[in-house]
């Protein structure tokens, strides 16, 4: 059959049919027939097929209309839920989305005469929240899906749990700050604020606050920290962060002191020899005295005696066999695993919240600085990924981790940075013990 001539009535009708929607008043729902104009709709109403369908409708009018109404309600509510969720939408806009389908159920075949009646029905049934405004009726879908409600409840509980964790972390940080302030007061410390100079910062590491204690500190040079092996468990011993320039200054002062002492001893020895050369009678007595008391460096001799004494005391304190596990709750540790989160937590301090099977711990990461808000993460790590933290100041509390005094609390009374040891005073019986840096850690 040839195509209709362009511009003819047949061509216009075909294009209107291909376009999709036509006038709703010329649509017969019982026959699912769309007519082009009023004349065609009249012809359809007098057709035999339409009359047969109307006889069926006359026999069960209420049932057929209820089916059309329930189907229209289902399509409208499903469109509102899927496309807009629980958003507040104009009821007419949703209706336009529904009738965009050419095969939709028309409202003139339902029990509602207008869209306003249908919207009010949805409000009375409790399916939607209905609101009448100057721009028309607005509807908001009420979500009742059990799976979605359970998911929303889980998200709400997770948010509450995160908020509680943040509050606990803030309280813990406040407790640590108060304990640090008390320790500073007991040690007679003074906090001095120093103004920063423009252009003198490097990588943002300049310290804005200097804390000075009234306790005399050893100026011994600090060598580069190394790892020590203890029964197969590796612990990297690193003290709290210090300023490298201060270390170099202390090392230079100590070197100058040793040189001055050596020069004084050498001058004293040369003067005695010159006197003996001038007076031979005193030479024999001086030689005898030299045999009995040869010239020595006083500072070196005192240092050697102190070292021998500390070694002897340390040996007595470490008579018991050490365990290969050292983790303990409520101590401060440092993370040394470079591969964890691409090094995000490397050299970060943390608090041990729980010890798992002696060799693992659940830790809470502390903030990297006072202004940074990057703390509170909970990690589960092996003890090989952690190291002990040594207090920087004297008088701070620590916990002994290995040996016969494991679990006891003590205070630092002396730090020997050359031998990586410290003298601790036990809090329960005031005994003094000497332990390696790896055998104790700072308390949280």
Structure description:
The protein has 444 residues and is α+β, with helices and mostly antiparallel strands. Helix content is 41%, strand content 20%. The strands form six sheets. The protein has a six-stranded mixed beta sheet, with no helix packed on it. Strands 19-18-17-16-20 form a five-stranded antiparallel beta sheet. Mean pLDDT is 75; it is low at 199-244 and 282-298.
What summary fits the major beta sheet? Answer: 6 strands, mixed
Separate helix tally: 10
Order of helices and strands: HEEHHHEHHEEHEEEEEHHHEEEEEEEEEE
- What gyration radius follows from the Cα positions, in whole Å? 45 Å
User: Segments where pLDDT lies below 50 for 5+ residues?
Assistant: 199-244, 282-298
**What distance lies between the first and last C-alpha atoms, to the nearest angstrom?**
93 Å
Helix content: 40-55%
- Coarse structural class: alpha+beta
Proportion of strand residues: 15-25%
Topology record:
Blueprint: H1 9-19, E1 27-28, E2 33-34, H2 38-45, H3 48-59, H4 61-84, E3 88-90, H5 91-99, H6 115-125, E4 128-133, E5 136-141, H7 146-186, E6 190-193, E7 209-212, E8 227-230, E9 233-236, E10 238-239, H8 244-278, H9 280-292, H10 298-317, E11 332-335, E12 349-356, E13 360-365, E14 378-382, E15 386-390, E16 397-400, E17 409-416, E18 421-426, E19 432-436, E20 440-442
Parallel strand pairs: 10-15
Antiparallel strand pairs: 1-2, 3-5, 4-5, 6-7, 8-9, 11-12, 11-15, 12-13, 13-14, 16-17, 16-20, 17-18, 18-19
Compact summary:
By secondary structure, this protein is α+β, with helices and mostly antiparallel strands. It is built from ten helices and 20 strands. The radius of gyration is 45 Å and the shape is rod-shaped.
């Amino acid at each position: 059959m040839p195509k209709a001539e362009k511009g003819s009535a047949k061509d216009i009708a075909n294009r209107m049919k291909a376009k999709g929607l036509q006038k709703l008043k010329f649509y017969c729902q019982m026959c699912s027939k769309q007519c082009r104009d009023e004349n065609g709709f009249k012809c359809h109403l007098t057709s035999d097929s339409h009359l047969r369908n109307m006889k069926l409708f006359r026999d069960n009018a209420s049932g057929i209309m209820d089916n059309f109404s329930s189907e229209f309600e289902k399509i409208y509510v499903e469109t509102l839920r899927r496309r807009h969720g629980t958003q507040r939408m104009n009821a007419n806009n949703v209706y336009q989305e529904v009738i965009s389908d050419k095969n939709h159920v028309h409202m003139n075949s339902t029990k509602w005469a207008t869209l306003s009646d249908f919207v009010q029905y949805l409000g009375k049934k409790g399916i939607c929240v209905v609101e009448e405004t100057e721009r028309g009726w607005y509807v908001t879908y009420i979500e009742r899906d059990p799976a979605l409600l359970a998911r929303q409840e889980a998200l709400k509980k997770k948010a509450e749990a995160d908020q509680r964790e943040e509050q606990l972390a803030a309280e813990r940080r406040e407790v640590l700050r108060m304990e640090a302030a008390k320790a500073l007061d007991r040690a007679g410390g003074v906090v001095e604020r120093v103004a920063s100079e423009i252009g003198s910062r490097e990588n943002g590491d300049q310290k804005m606050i200097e804390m000075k204690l009234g306790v005399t500190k050893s100026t011994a040079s600090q060598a580069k920290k190394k790892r020590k092996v203890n029964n197969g468990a590796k612990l990297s011993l690193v003290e709290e962060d210090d300023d490298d320039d201060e270390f170099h200054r202390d090392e230079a002062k100590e070197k100058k002191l040793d040189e001055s002492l050596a020069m004084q001893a050498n001058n004293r020895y040369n003067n005695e020899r010159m006197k003996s050369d001038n007076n031979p009678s005193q030479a024999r007595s001086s030689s005898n005295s030299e045999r009995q008391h040869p010239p020595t460096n006083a500072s070196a001799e005192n240092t050697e005696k102190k070292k021998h004494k500390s070694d002897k005391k340390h040996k007595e304190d470490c008579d018991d066999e050490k365990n290969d596990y050292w983790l303990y709750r409520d101590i401060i540790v440092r993370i040394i695993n470079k591969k964890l989160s691409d090094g995000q937590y490397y050299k970060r301090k943390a608090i041990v919240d729980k010890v798992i099977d002696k060799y693992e711990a659940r830790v809470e990461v502390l903030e990297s600085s006072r202004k940074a808000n990057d703390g509170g993460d909970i990690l589960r790590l092996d003890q090989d990924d952690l190291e002990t933290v040594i207090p920087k100041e004297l008088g701070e509390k620590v916990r002994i981790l290995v040996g016969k005094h494991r679990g006891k609390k003590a205070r630092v009374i002396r730090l020997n940075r050359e031998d990586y040891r410290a003298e601790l005073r036990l809090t329960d019986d005031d005994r003094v013990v000497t332990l390696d840096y790896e055998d104790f850690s700072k308390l949280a």
